[in-house]
């Protein structure tokens, strides 16, 4: 898959680990920054990635900041984005199955590298469930 990744200054180290992990799995990664630990603003990076997902330029996105919360909020301002911040794999799987999450987010200040990999595995390997879940995802997009 083609995956956009984005982060702020608080998640540069985790981003590098995630980027390598996803590339090793065979995914094509578009890294839209931030590249440095110099203080920056997560709304810019969340929106940048969100716009790419919403436009269909990539298949999905992975966002990282201190908690995952702020950068997910930024992405969710873009119509067509369904971003979920989570800290464990069960939410990640259900966010894909039930909410059709096209972006996952987590925080370098909250989880470690191995948990990030487990979240990515759960989310990337899950399928969007149809029926009532498709209806509700459509309802989200219509808000
Ligand atoms: C930056 O200090 C921090 O606020 C940011 O990375 C993130 O945690 C916000 O949600």
List key phrases describing it.
47% helix, binds D-ribose, 5-stranded parallel beta sheet, globular, 143 residues, alpha/beta, 5 strands
| Overall mean confidence score, pLDDT | 98
Shape: globular
The total of helices stands at 6
Order of neighbouring strands in the sheet with most strands: 2-1-3-5-4
Amino- and carboxy-terminal Cα gap: 28 Å
- The percentage helix is 40-55%
Uncertain stretches: none
String of helices and strands: EHEHEHEHEHH
Could you tell me which ligands this complex binds, including any ions or cofactors?
Answer: D-ribose
Largest sheet at a glance? 5 strands, parallel
Helix/strand/pairing category: alpha/beta
**Per DSSP, what share of the residues sits in E-state strands of 2 or more residues?**
15-25%
| Radius of gyration using CA atoms only | 14 Å
Task: Please provide the count of β strands.
Answer: 5
What layout of secondary structure does this protein have?
Blueprint: E1 2-7, H1 12-24, E2 28-31, H2 42-54, E3 60-65, H3 69-76, E4 83-85, H4 89-97, E5 103-107, H5 113-125, H6 132-142
Parallel strand pairs: 1-2, 1-3, 3-5, 4-5
Helix pairs in contact: 2-3, 4-5
Bound molecules: D-ribose (RB5).
């Amino acid at each position: 898959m083609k995956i956009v990744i984005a982060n702020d200054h608080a998640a540069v180290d985790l981003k590098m680990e995630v980027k390598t992990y996803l590339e090793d799995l065979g995914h094509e990664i578009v890294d839209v920054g931030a590249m440095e630990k110099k203080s920056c603003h997560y709304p810019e990076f969340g929106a940048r990635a969100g716009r790419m997902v919403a436009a269909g330029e990539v298949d999905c996105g992975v966002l990282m900041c201190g908690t995952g919360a702020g950068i997910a909020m930024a992405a969710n301002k873009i119509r067509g984005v369904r971003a979920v911040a989570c800290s464990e794999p069960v939410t990640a799987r259900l966010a894909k199955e039930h909410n059709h999450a096209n972006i996952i987010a987590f925080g370098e200040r909250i989880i470690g590298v191995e948990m990030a990999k487990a979240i990515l595995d759960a989310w990337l390997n899950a399928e969007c469930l149809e029926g009532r879940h498709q209806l509700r995802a459509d309802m989200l997009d219509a808000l």
